[in-house]
């Protein structure tokens, strides 16, 4: 029997009542977890490419005394179903954002504190653009609002996934984690993701530009920057500059944290997020 690896935290998700549900959204089913339903304000946690709602298991026990905590698996991730025909157009960020809006309607939740990692942060920017009235605040980590990759690089990445598959690549992807827990968690999540889901999403992540959206917005926002997330930090400057010029914004850096900051250091991540939410 494999040994269970835990993160460096005193939190214990097994002592928290977390409900797991599958929402019928019509053409797809969406998996989500929820705790603290009695609380008035809601926090929605959204993962990135290849992950799922279980990325936020250590956020439930920390926040659910004060907030209604929701974590969702995006279409084609975790136990959320993909569309039957699996067309690339069905995986646009706008479409994934609409899934979340539909879920919130099903749960009768009007506004949320949105917290997104990587692609989940990009979906947060899409919500800031298309549904700003739904946001009490926006927090992103491991996310840039501006990214431009060449078609050749995107095609190469798709080819690698097609040939190798997510189960094999999961053994390499765990390098994105800093601690034994985060490495194992990343590996498990990516291995559980359908290869075709990843391949259909990659083209939509080649060219991203929400800088104008940021400039026009008024929603209170925070970026949590893991100091070891080199790939994103190298392309983050324009996003930070836009927010600083706009105002109503905080930039927080977590030391010894990478792309998956909430997995690398859940204690500091949770306290950083809570401090920010108290200012909203």
TrEMBL record:
> Which parts of the sequence belong to the AB hydrolase-1 domain?
42-143
Q: What are this entry's molecular-function GO terms?
A: hydrolase activity
Cite the Pfam families for this sequence: Abhydrolase_1
What Gene3D superfamilies is this protein classified in? Answer: alpha/beta hydrolase
What does the UniProt keyword field contain?
Hydrolase
Protein name as it appears in the record: Alpha/beta fold hydrolase
